[in-house]
């Protein structure tokens, strides 16, 4: 939602300017990272305000380490947010993907550029063009996540942030 995007942008900007903040951890709520945009919002007129692409770029440009703590699902725009992060930790049961193509849409927040840079063109093309969800284990093998954990993902992401 626009509210979530605005809060994410505001939080990132505040963290970047606060010298007491050494790293940033982004997580979801209720055991899910993010299922991406609500498709119903695509039919409504564009409103002025925040869009996802520039926020992902803001994450990527942060001089402080940004760690994604992926639980449950990171799909569509949710996965694109993680692609802007410097590090990604996923729970062993997490599912990741860019399913927009199954609706006739391409990922719209530069996921089509960031994913191939991270995991290579052949693997990225498979994920982008099929819309299939991949497991955390496969994501680790591809280099999409840095670590998978069976424990609390948020705590593991905080430990990683403290290490880097």
TrEMBL record:
Pfam families assigned to the protein according to its UniProt record, in alphabetical order: ECH_1 (PF00378)
GO cellular component: peroxisome
Catalyzed reactions: (3E)-hexenoyl-CoA = (2E)-hexenoyl-CoA; (3Z)-hexenoyl-CoA = (2E)-hexenoyl-CoA; (3E)-decenoyl-CoA = (2E)-decenoyl-CoA; a (3S)-3-hydroxyacyl-CoA + NAD(+) = a 3-oxoacyl-CoA + NADH + H(+)
Coiled coil: none
Keywords carried by this UniProt record: Isomerase, Lyase, Multifunctional enzyme
A Gene Ontology BP annotation from the UniProt entry: fatty acid beta-oxidation
Classification via CDD domains: crotonase-like (cd06558)
Presence of the UniProt keyword Isomerase in the record: yes
Single GO MF annotation: (3S)-3-hydroxyacyl-CoA dehydrogenase (NAD+) activity
Xref: InterPro entries: ClpP/crotonase-like_dom_sf, Enoyl-CoA_hyd/isom_CS, Enoyl-CoA_hydra/iso
Family indicated by similarity: In the C-terminal section; belongs to the 3-hydroxyacyl-CoA dehydrogenase family. Belongs to the enoyl-CoA hydratase/isomerase family.
Name the UniProt record assigns to this protein: Peroxisomal bifunctional enzyme
